[in-house]
Amino acid sequence: MNLIPAGKPALSGRLRATYLIETRYPLEVAAAAMAGEQSSGTFRAIPGETPELLRRFGARVEFISDVAEVDSEALPFSRSPKNATVRPRRAKVGLSWNIENTGTVLASVWSTVLGNLFELHHFSAMRLLDLTFPDAFADAYPGPAFAVEGTRRLTSVEGRPLIGTIVKPSVGLSPQETAALADTLIAAGLDFIKDDELMGDPPHSPFEHRFEAVMAVIDRHADRTGRKVMYAANISGDIDAMRRQLDLIERRGGTCAMLVLNSVGLSAVIEMRRHSAVALHGHRAGWGLFSRSPDLGMSYLAYQKFWRLAGIDHMHVNGLSNKFCEPDESVMASAHGCLTPMFERAGRPDTVMPVFSSGQSAVQAAETYTRLGSDDFIYCCGGGIMAHPGGPAAGVRSLHDAFEAAAAGIPARDYAATHPELEAALQAFG
Amino acid sequence: MNLIPAGKPALSGRLRATYLIETRYPLEVAAAAMAGEQSSGTFRAIPGETPELLRRFGARVEFISDVAEVDSEALPFSRSPKNATVRPRRAKVGLSWNIENTGTVLASVWSTVLGNLFELHHFSAMRLLDLTFPDAFADAYPGPAFAVEGTRRLTSVEGRPLIGTIVKPSVGLSPQETAALADTLIAAGLDFIKDDELMGDPPHSPFEHRFEAVMAVIDRHADRTGRKVMYAANISGDIDAMRRQLDLIERRGGTCAMLVLNSVGLSAVIEMRRHSAVALHGHRAGWGLFSRSPDLGMSYLAYQKFWRLAGIDHMHVNGLSNKFCEPDESVMASAHGCLTPMFERAGRPDTVMPVFSSGQSAVQAAETYTRLGSDDFIYCCGGGIMAHPGGPAAGVRSLHDAFEAAAAGIPARDYAATHPELEAALQAFG
């Protein structure tokens, strides 16, 4: 047997990551501990760790940028160097890895840039701020198949954001009740509807029954309007079941499937992208685990890059003045991240369409549009449509009005003077 | 088409979860917000949310147990009720869900018990403490195929813990170098070896070459000893590649595959269990994301139940006096959790074998054994074997000595008087 690796193309380039850290160790020592743990090293030098191996496979500390001294540790259980009298210090640290360490395997990258780092005793804060993939990953993974352009094509929506909603109550409706609600929402003029992330394949609403019932409604309206509403049906579950559900969606003329990214995981999403003929809508439920502490986890900027490479077309980013606890600046940074290309290569778009939701209505529409500097997004409203004083159709109309005003640079309040649905929305939800 | 759900057996039972929370809201209001967000409700009552639907599908607040008032918020960005003057309060909250909400889909359970909870603005701390699955999940998922009994059978080790190690350096060794190191380690008397979690399928050590090279060494020693060392080869990657690698492991007579659980995700692990004929070794790299903040995330007690149901046979739990920042009590609670049955049913064991590692040597062996109250575990040492003053074989001997002493109730120091390898280990690593 030939044990010499052969037949694989040579890879080049480095994976680059930036972290926020907090430590009582000298910054150089702390950064070296990160680099060692996540590449060739361990805590102490070991026999096979030759200088040549370290040079080729050791993670490199690219920069250390001092931020500030702080009064006390943000996270517990860190340790101090012996006889340390200094206070904890915050810094940004840049690390890079030879792509030879991971090959172009996304799961290996996840292990490498996250992995054991959060448990190292040197640190009382550890957060991945950003991540840059070398070009070889653009060859290894297909990225989004539809993204902005494909989603516009599938929905026949041009020159404005897509307006959507989430079927509520989250759980409990039968397939027939879901279809009846979808009928009301689609009749109101929506472009996009989705299952709640809690609605999967339960006995009271089996996926295939719900999907068939909703698609019958969508088709009926498409016959009337010439436009097919996109339905992001939640397929999240075991691999075989997801594949069967994707097949049903394709066979039945659906255009989208939803995946709860953190619940099914990275390798499952990659597999669904390979199997899917429809757009993949990425829900981030559980994202708070990564983001809720500013001293731990990872930025959305880094997070969304994994799922984009895996092939997700739409990514949830929360919304301005949302009902959760994310500040507006964070929401907009996430959305901008989604629309920023990952690779500097022509020909294949790799951006992903941001999805705004959570307490949204015509009230935040103009600001969302203006701050994003683009109409390439999906804007999901629940109460902002269903609870509009003039009914759901007036709710949808108020959103069109709001985006028209924003596109024309006219303040919403002024535009509302001649657009009663917008006026009513601003009064009801403002 | 018949839209009436049929053909699925009726499900009964409730999913039960306990959380630690911190809030300025009245505890009842806060608990109701959790229950509403993660079941039928939204932040405000909506049309389809009938009393009957709420009764059947609404999450139930089972108990609220006040813990203490605290000085200030643990996590930022929470909001207070209007005119609130109270300080934040900590409590334990028990929620339960009708299994009809999720069916027996593990990914749906993940979305339900974690999901948006961490982002709710009511809370400045949110941590899942424990989780109990109804019996229907034991029917829906196969659980571990090997666990303790099967692992003992595959390795021919009875009446003592398995002694193992991790091939280091983590990355950089060629297949031939890895095999040479495996030769040294197996000659020293080990039961178990594993890849580092950073070593997957990179160009300098393609999985198939590495696996073949190491198996040749394992077979040669098995011919001599009659015992086949278990090699947990890291297959973590894309689904197709993992399946191919599992096939190779089975075809070539391997007995184990390693999965980096957080990197590949839940649905991928479930799929690998269905495909695998060998034991599945679960690495928890990235676990710090869930655990490092005491105010966020989830306990290992809850975490390991997902992977056990998915079918993992071995779960990493860190080790006593480890080189990371996890306290010893936490390590032992994790290990005890792994060996505690999930379902009260005879016939099929559903426990998972805990794996101790990180800075381990003969020094912690007796305490690990005694505190666990069992020898059903894998004990992985790196330096504790390779850096033993008498060489790797003496390192392995020192561990056998330590466990023999512990089993006989003899203090290690006393036993060391007549066991020089143990004596040397206690001096070198103590």
Protein described:
- Two copies of one chain form a homodimer.
- Chain A is of the alpha/beta class and 430 residues long.
- Chain A contains 18 helices and 13 strands.
- In chain A, the strands form two sheets. An eight-stranded parallel β-barrel of chain A has the order 5-6-7-8-9-11-12-13, surrounded by five helices. A five-stranded mixed sheet of chain A has the order 2-3-1-4-10.
- In chain A, helix 13 links the parallel strand 11 and strand 12.
- In chain A, helix 8 runs parallel beside helix 10, helix 14 runs parallel beside helix 16 and helix 16 crosses helix 18.
- Chain A is globular and about 75 Å long.
- The N terminus of chain A is likely disordered.
How would you concisely characterize the structure shown here?
With 430 residues, chain A is of the alpha/beta class.
The greatest interface here is: A-B, 112 and 114 residues
**Radius of gyration from the alpha-carbon trace of chain A, in angstroms:** 24 Å
- Biggest beta-sheet profile of chain A: 8 strands, parallel, barrel
The percent range for strand residues of chain A is 15-25%
Report the total helices of chain A. Answer: 18
What does the average pLDDT of chain A come to?
94
* Side-by-side strand order of the widest sheet of chain A: 5-6-7-8-9-11-12-13
Shape of chain A: globular
Kindly, what is the distance between the CA atoms of the first and last residues of chain A, rounded to a whole number of angstroms?
Answer: 72 Å
Low-confidence stretches of chain A: 1-7
By helix and strand content of chain A, what is the structural category? alpha/beta
